[in-house]
Design the sequence.
């Protein structure tokens, strides 16, 4: 089947809230260069690198995405054949049970849908013995399904929390189908980038919603954001050649750093200082990563004026969506004059602030 990597690469633990010890970019790359990468090194891999790559492929195991909460360890060599966004059997069953979301109802009828409206739901438990290829969608259908879901993001017909809840569940189902088939090619990298974008934008929009369940939706959304990011980093590694990086890779790595601005979303495992050591050097030197580290320093050291000014002048839209809660916090500190010394020091040039032994000691304490 097109798009399947043989064999799939060995998975790594994810950046979940319970642990952040997952990304190991120092491991050798495995798959071919994708269509949306750019050249950073024209050197040819030596024989030792080639032997290491071959050895890694022999020891690879299945089920690369462990960030989804289902039991699929026993599924091997599954090839999806479902031509629709939702398997026919599931759609008919949900029609009988009136289990159709508002976006899936044909002419508003809660008991009728169609192949162009129904989207496969996420299933937490899967019966391996009864699972068939017709229950799983191939890569091309999953890409079409993702396109359909992303087009719903700007829908104004329903409250955003309703839109988010539907897309959130159906995207988890996409990840589930990809994982069951062990598809890990460069096309999947692009899909995961889009799913990470959805979670970031959703988090931004959910802050403007009101309701009793918004807090729960935000928590679950942030949880899936960190899990999707973890899998995306592993996909970058698996599809990278020695002469290329992905076009958006540096920006997506910066998201993990920026997520550490908010203590509520930080992992409880490994510190950023250790995480940085395993990030590829070309990513560490990138404009996006330099921005993220600078922003983190400003915020942790209380230089709120510089923090806000730098964010407004340099952040991308997705970076701003992550930083926004910290901007509100920094503004409150300035207005309330809770950090007068930090405010005064924020007028000093970076050359002084970030080269003296005193401030370097502060960086070591906060892990940046």
Sequence:
């Amino acid at each position: 089947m097109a798009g399947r990597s043989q064999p799939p690469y060995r998975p790594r633990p994810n950046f979940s809230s319970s642990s952040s010890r997952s990304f190991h970019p120092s491991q050798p790359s495995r798959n071919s260069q994708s269509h949306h990468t750019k050249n950073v090194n024209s050197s040819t891999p030596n024989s030792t690198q080639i032997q290491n790559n071959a050895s890694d492929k022999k020891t690879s195991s299945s089920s690369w995405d462990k960030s989804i909460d289902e039991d699929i360890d026993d599924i091997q060599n599954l090839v999806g054949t479902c031509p629709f966004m939702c398997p026919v059997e599931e759609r008919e069953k949900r029609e009988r049970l009136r289990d159709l979301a508002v976006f899936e109802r044909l002419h508003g009828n809660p008991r009728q849908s169609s192949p162009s409206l129904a989207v496969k739901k996420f299933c937490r438990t899967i019966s391996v013995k009864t699972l068939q290829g017709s229950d799983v969608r191939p890569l091309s259908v999953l890409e079409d399904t993702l396109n359909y879901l992303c087009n719903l993001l700007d829908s104004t017909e329903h409250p955003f929390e309703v839109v988010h809840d539907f897309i959130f569940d159906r995207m988890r189902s996409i990840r589930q189908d990809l994982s069951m088939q062990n598809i890990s090619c460069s096309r999947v990298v692009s899909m995961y980038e889009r799913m990470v974008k959805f979670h970031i934008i959703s988090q931004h929009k959910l802050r403007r919603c009101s309701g009793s369940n918004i807090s729960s939706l935000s928590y679950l959304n942030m949880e899936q954001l960190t899990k999707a990011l973890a899998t995306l980093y592993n996909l970058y590694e698996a599809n990278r050649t020695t002469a290329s990086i992905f076009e958006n890779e540096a920006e997506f790595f910066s998201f993990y750093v920026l997520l550490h601005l908010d203590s509520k979303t930080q992992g409880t495992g490994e510190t950023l200082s250790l995480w940085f050591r395993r990030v590829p050097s070309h990513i560490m030197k990138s404009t996006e990563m330099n921005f993220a580290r600078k922003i983190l320093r400003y915020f942790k050291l209380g230089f709120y004026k510089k923090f806000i000014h730098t964010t407004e002048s340099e952040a991308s839209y997705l970076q701003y969506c992550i930083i926004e809660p910290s901007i509100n916090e920094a503004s409150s500190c300035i207005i309330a004059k809770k950090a007068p010394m930090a405010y005064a020091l924020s007028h000093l040039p970076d050359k002084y602030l970030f080269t003296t032994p005193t401030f370097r000691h502060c960086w070591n304490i906060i892990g940046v």
Remarks:
- The beta strands are 37-39, 244-246.
- The CA atoms of residues 67 and 147 lie 22 Å apart.
